[in-house]
Structures are given as structure tokens and as C-alpha cells.
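Dear support,

I submitted the protein below through the web form. The confirmation email said the job was done, but the results page showed an empty box. After a refresh the structure appeared. I'm attaching both so you can tell me whether what I see now is the final result or a partial one.
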Amino acid sequence: MTLAWYLILAGIIFSIGATIVVVRRSAIISLMGVELMLNAANLAFATFGRVLGDVSGEIMAFFVMIVAAAEVVVGLAIIVSIFRSRSTTNVDDVNLLKN
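What the results page shows now:
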């Protein structure tokens, strides 16, 4: 496969993730969409690293994985605390910042 095929695949995965974030109202499903977008970025980084013969793409993908793990931990903690107080994970029903 050439560079273009990997980038097309990364674009499709990123588009699916962005669509999930915009369309779905569950916070957990939205986090899954963000994870898909981060994985698409990892695919692009690894592809460019392989094509250029440099490890910097893989290093960037590793840092994106670290950020994704931190995002999941913080995001799920926030979702659990909101679920305990409001009994819902629907992002439209959550208005904790309003007076």
C-alpha cells in the first residue's frame, strides 16, 4: 500500500470519529469518537514516519497514546461524577456550569 491509501484510511477513521462526537449525545460514546480521531492521527504519524524512514512518527504516536490514556481517565472520572449527581450521561441534560 502506498502513502495515499494509509492517509485515506486515516481520514475516513477521523471522519467517523468526528461524526460520532457531533451526532451522539452520550458522553461515553463521544469519548469513543475522540479516541477514534486520536487513532487516526496515530495512523498518519506512523505512516509518515515509515515513509520518511524516521522514528519521529512513532514517537509522536506514542505521545498521542499517552494523551489519549490521560483523556480517558479524566473524562471517565468526570462522567462518573456527573452520573452520580444527575443519573444521566446525556450531554444535553448536563448543565452543571449554569447557576
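Response: this is the final, complete result; the empty box was a page-load delay. The chain is about 80% helix and 0% strand.
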